[in-house]
Amino acid sequence: MSTSDDPLLHRVRQGDRDALAEFIDDRRLQLLAFINRNTGASLKRKVEADDILQEVSSEAVRTLENTDLKDRDPFSWLCHLAEQRIVDAHRRYFGSQKRDANREVALDGGSSTASRAGLINLLIASMTSPSQAFSRNQKQMRMLEALSQLPEEQHTALRLRYLEGLSSKEVAQHLGKTDGAVRVMLTRAISRLQSLLGEPDPPTV
């Protein structure tokens, strides 16, 4: 039976909260795996994956009737909610820790540090603002839209490096890559964000 013929999925898409609870229970292990994969070591010391999943479940049930899932995979929607909860949890536990972006962007000495610092300050602000869209300003919304267009691995690398504050070596260990490969990935991701946001690349020196 194809997923489109799955009666449980059909009921979820029709706004059946009991079906949603059953769906979440069926996908519990997959959701926990997603949460663990997207939660850095520092945040894992503060909050359990089960706690985040509980918040996701409550939010999903609360917002189901106002969410259009007719052409959307419910599991992807739950993963999106989980990512929002992870960002909110990081803001809750680490939001008061101000980062100096000028010290975070020296990945390729040929680029303008000031330009990259401004972009990364916007990146950090966008990812640590409350998840409700109305609380974000236009620049942060544009940044979030640009982030959504990056490959998942680049998105994760940016979050771990600039939001979680991991070193490039720690990010490399998390992603199973070399330090050099992660540095290249981060540089390309930042350049891609600049392009998507319509900002010119800083001149090389």
Commentary on this structure:
The protein has eleven helices and no strands. The chain is an all-alpha fold and 205 residues long. The chain has two domains: 3-94, Rna Polymerase Sigma Factor, Chain: A; 101-196, Winged helix-like DNA-binding domain superfamily/Winged helix DNA-binding domain (Arc Repressor Mutant, subunit A, Orthogonal Bundle). The protein starts with 6 loop residues before the first helix and ends in a 9-residue tail after the last helix.
Keywords:
mainly alpha; Arc Repressor Mutant, subunit A; 2 domains; 11 helices; globular
Short description:
The chain is an all-alpha fold and 205 residues long. The protein has helices spanning 7-13, 17-26, 28-37, 41-44, 49-63, 74-94, 113-128, 138-148, 152-163, 168-175, 179-196.
Q: Remind me, CATH topology of the largest domain? A: Arc Repressor Mutant, subunit A
Order of helices and strands: HHHHHHHHHHH
CATH level-4 homologous superfamily of the largest domain: Winged helix-like DNA-binding domain superfamily/Winged helix DNA-binding domain
Instruction: State the major sheet.
Output: none
* Approximate strand percentage: under 5%
- CATH-scheme architecture of the largest domain: Orthogonal Bundle
Given the structure, what is the number of helices? 11
Helix and strand content put the structural class at mainly alpha
